Structure formats: structure tokens, C-alpha cells
Amino acid sequence: MPSNVNLQGGKAFGALKTQQQEKLEEVNREFLQDQKFADEEDLAEKLESFKSKYMEFDLNDQGEIDMMALKRMMEKLGVPKTHLEMKKMISEVTGGISDTICYRDFVKMMLGKRSAVLKLVMMFEDKANGSSIKPTGPPPKRDIASLP
Length: 148
Prior knowledge:
Elements: H1 9-33, H2 43-57, E1 64-65, H3 67-76, H4 83-94, E2 101-102, H5 103-111, H6 117-131
Antiparallel strand pairs: 1-2
């Protein structure tokens, strides 16, 4: 962020998020114009979904998902991974070039034919979110007999 802009707290965060969103939109436009993805069904909707998912997990707001963000992402999706597994996932997505996942690599992975572990986890999470209805409120009372 330019140093001449003097924003604080929430405003600075909002400006950063807006800036980040514009960068991701730019990448989405590139994919929409790319002939390789011309036959992809619902491409615009998929890209919009990828963008919101990516922004949710880009915790350092640098425009990239690093090891800690990936760790939190996997935990939130209910599939915690070891340090080594996460390194392998990042390497698989980036082709071993980087230790962070940029949005362009993320989209390529999600649209790609290869089934990266991260892609499978993300698709699993979407299916789980769509179909299962979690009960709200306090858990039901249990007695000793119902315990395993």
C-alpha cells in the first residue's frame, strides 16, 4: 500500500481487500479470455466462487496463500494436514517453484485436469456445505447408556 495514504484500522484493511479483489478480478478476466478455458462450463460463476474462496484464506493479504493460511484452510475444512503434507500440496499446485500459492496457480489447479489434493479437498467442502444441514442450538442431552 502506498505510504502517502494514511488509513487506519478497518479502513486500511478495507482498502487492502478492495485492492486485492481488483487484482483477482484481473486474473479472472484473463481466464475468461483464454481460449484454453473457452469450453469450461459456467466459467464466470466458477471464477467468482474461486475468488471469494481464495480471499477467505489469503490471511496475510499479500495476494498469496502461504503455509499458515493453508494450514488454517485445511483445519477449517475439517482435514488438518501435517507440515510435510502441506509442503507437498503447495509444491503440487505451484510446480515446486514457490512456497506460496498465488491466485493464478490456484485457479489453474481448480480448472485443471490434474486432481491436486487441495482441489479435491475444496470440491469435497463445497459438496459438504451444499447438502448437509447442521443442527443449530445446543447439542441434545445424552445419558450414560447412549455413550459408545
